[in-house]
Amino acid sequence: MNWEPWTGCYMHSDGCANCYFYGPHAKRFGQNTIKKTDKFDWPIRKNAKGDYNIKGNKILATCFATDFFLPEADAWRREIWAMIRERSDIDFLILTKRIDRFMTSLPADWGDGYDNVNLGCTVENQKAADYRLPLFLSYPIKRRFIACAPLLEAIDLRPYLHGVNHVSVGGETGRDARVCNYDWVLDLHTQCQAANVTFWFKNTGSKFAHDGVIENINPFKQTSRARELDIDISDGKRLF
Ligand code: SF4
């Protein structure tokens, strides 16, 4: 399940150039004002009987269409942390391109990290990996993963894999999408295999270079095309 407590975002790095939500060809282009959504307090809403509307033992992925660490959301994030703490029966998956704002965005009782937070650092190229991942690994976080998306080039993650549980990889979607080369994906797969880290090839993107051919792939088929290649590494749990 996805939970978007706020909406709106703006370009931060190379991976944002054709953002699926706010890029030049996206429906929400120009929506740079960050606003709370009507689902802001969704995880702690209760029904008439006093039970939570969202039952426990779920994964709630947050801020897939914005960024959890946007400075414009600093005041609201305090409330969000309190909700995450209250719902210790839900695993919250948080993905960000702004990991360098992590330390200034924490609640007072964070300590070594909340058990139910799985934090994902997005890296689209080697430059982003070499800047963000040393920071990411130095922060107090109990569960970490890396999202290589949109994958724009070959990336050497080997210096960083000791500190993460999982890597996901995806190509870029959209009219001006940049090519995702299967050789880069396979290389990341090999790196994860050697480091004993789970791996999910999530989607191919719209332009997928495979066996010397560039395939143009409809957004609805990008996940199944990636799955067909059968290179995921699972530990038996659900991949994300
Ligand atoms: S951080 Fe994410 S949501 Fe925000 S512009 Fe970049 S790609 Fe889009």
Brief summary of the model shown:
The protein is an alpha/beta fold. Helices cover 20% and strands 21% of the residues.
Overview of the molecule:
- It is a single chain.
- The chain is an alpha/beta fold.
- 20% of the residues lie in helices and 21% in strands.
- The chain has a seven-stranded parallel β-sheet.
- Strand 6, helix 2 (126-138) and strand 7 form a beta-alpha-beta unit.
- The radius of gyration is 18 Å and the shape is globular.
- The termini are close together.
- The mean pLDDT is 96.
- Iron/sulfur cluster (SF4) binds at residues 9-12, 15-16, 19, 21-22, 66-67, 97.
End-to-end CA span: 11 Å
Helix content: 10-25%
Class per helix and strand makeup: alpha/beta
Strand order of the largest sheet: 1-4-5-6-7-8-10
Give the integer mean of the pLDDT values. 96
SSE topology:
Layout: E1 2-3, E2 6-7, E3 35-36, E4 58-62, H1 74-86, E5 90-96, E6 117-122, H2 126-138, E7 143-148, E8 166-170, E9 180-181, H3 182-195, E10 198-203, E11 207-210, E12 213-216, H4 222-228
Parallel strand pairs: 1-4, 4-5, 5-6, 6-7, 7-8, 8-10, 9-11
Antiparallel strand pairs: 2-3, 11-12
This protein binds iron/sulfur cluster (SF4).
Residues 9-12, 15-16, 19, 21-22, 66-67, 97 line the site of iron/sulfur cluster (SF4).
